[in-house]
Amino acid sequence: MAYSADVNRWRGPAEQSYRPHMLDTPWHPGWIAVTIVGFLIWWPIGLALLFFTLGSRKMSCWSNGDRWQNRMERMQWKMERMRDRMERRGFGFGPPSGSGNRAFDEYRMETLRRLEDEQKEFHEFLSRLRHAKDKEEFDAFMSQHRQRPTPPADQPQS
């Protein structure tokens, strides 16, 4: 059974017994007929009905509040499907595979490990440097705060 048979075009699942009225949906056959008759009688009437139909905000592209969420989910699904196809054909997105030269692969792995260690050490150094700078600023603030005279307790503060 096709999906279109399970879903009422205007209201959702087929188990809901609902027949839409002409004013409930812009794509009701009555609206289409009235718009065509409007064009036949006098073209500005048909044009006005067409613009009313398009601008009524009842069209499906505007009534769906989570439109962008649906698009993002669809794009994620397509990206995963493409990634699976590429991996099946040998174009993986994971870590690089071996080059075939064992000595070069060992050298590359050792170099990458060393660079990661240096990066980790550098981030730790920056963290210690920021901490020392913050401590120095805080100590300077506290020394200024301690040097300020405190007002006598018998004078009311305003």
Short summary:
It contains six helices and two strands, in the order H-E-E-H-H-H-H-H.
Write the layout of secondary structure elements.
Elements: H1 3-6, E1 7-8, E2 12-13, H2 29-41, H3 43-55, H4 60-63, H5 67-88, H6 102-147
Antiparallel strand pairs: 1-2
Helix pairs in contact: 2-3
Order of helices and strands: HEEHHHHH
Stretches where pLDDT is under 50 for at least 5 consecutive residues are none
The number of helical elements comes to 6
The class by helix and strand makeup works out as mainly alpha
- Give the overall average pLDDT: 76
Q: Radius of gyration, Cα only, in angstroms?
A: 35 Å
The total of beta strands comes to: 2
Sketch the major β-sheet: 2 strands, antiparallel
**Overall 3D form:** flat
Oligomer: single chain
The portion of residues forming beta strands comes to under 5%
Q: Strands of the largest sheet, in order across it? A: 1-2
Helix content: 55-70%
Characterise the protein shown here.
It is built from six helices and two strands. It has 158 residues and is an all-alpha fold. The chain has a two-stranded antiparallel ribbon. Helix 2 (29-41) runs antiparallel to helix 3. It is flat and about 90 Å long. The N and C termini lie far apart (82 Å). The model has no long low-confidence stretch (mean pLDDT 76).
Essential attributes:
single chain, 158 residues, mainly alpha, two-stranded antiparallel sheet, 6 helices, 2 strands, 3% strand
